[in-house]
């Protein structure tokens, strides 16, 4: 990509899977002079643009890890405990 080009991404999860990766890509684009269009133009050089870039990224990473990670080991502690069985029944 060249200076002044715009990278068009329909959804943030298509750009990166984690917030650190998205930030790295965003910083790389800014250093090259490339704009990012995420459903609309976002100026990553502007503090407000960076904030609007990071908020959906955080939500996307949370959703991805929640779906991929499955329930935590202690999600159903009551199911692990059972009533003792009677002897002789």
Description:
A three-stranded mixed sheet has the order 1-2-3. It has one domain (6-69). The protein has 89 residues and is mainly α. The chain is 46% helix and 11% strand. It is rod-shaped, with a radius of gyration of 22 Å. Helix 1 (19-32) links the parallel strand 1 and strand 2. It has three helices and three strands.
Give a brief outline of the structure.
This protein has three helices and three strands; from the N terminus they run βαββαα.
Number of domains: 1
Q: How do the strands of the widest beta sheet line up side by side?
A: 1-2-3
State the total count of DSSP E strands: 3
Termini Cα gap:
75 Å
Rounded mean pLDDT is: 76
- Supply the number of helical segments: 3
Q: SSE order, as H and E?
A: EHEEHH
Sheet/helix structural class:
mainly alpha
Q: Pick out the low-confidence regions.
A: none
Hey, roughly how much beta strand do the residues contain? 5-15%
Tell me the radius of gyration.
22 Å
Helix content: 40-55%
Question: Describe the biggest sheet?
Answer: 3 strands, mixed
Q: What gross morphology would you assign?
A: rod-shaped
Topology readout:
Elements: E1 6-9, H1 19-32, E2 35-38, E3 41-42, H2 47-69, H3 77-80
Parallel strand pairs: 1-2
Antiparallel strand pairs: 2-3
Descriptive key words:
mainly alpha, 3-stranded mixed β-sheet, 3 helices, 3 strands, about 10% strand
């Amino acid at each position: 990509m060249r200076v002044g080009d715009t990278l068009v991404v329909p959804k943030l999860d298509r750009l990166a899977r984690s917030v650190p990766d998205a930030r790295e890509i965003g910083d790389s684009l800014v250093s090259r002079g490339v704009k990012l269009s995420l459903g609309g133009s976002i100026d990553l050089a502007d503090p407000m643009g960076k904030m609007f870039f990071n908020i959906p990224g955080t939500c996307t990473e949370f959703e991805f890890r929640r779906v991929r990670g499955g329930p935590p080991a202690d999600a159903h502690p009551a199911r692990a405990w059972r009533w003792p069985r009677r002897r002789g029944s």
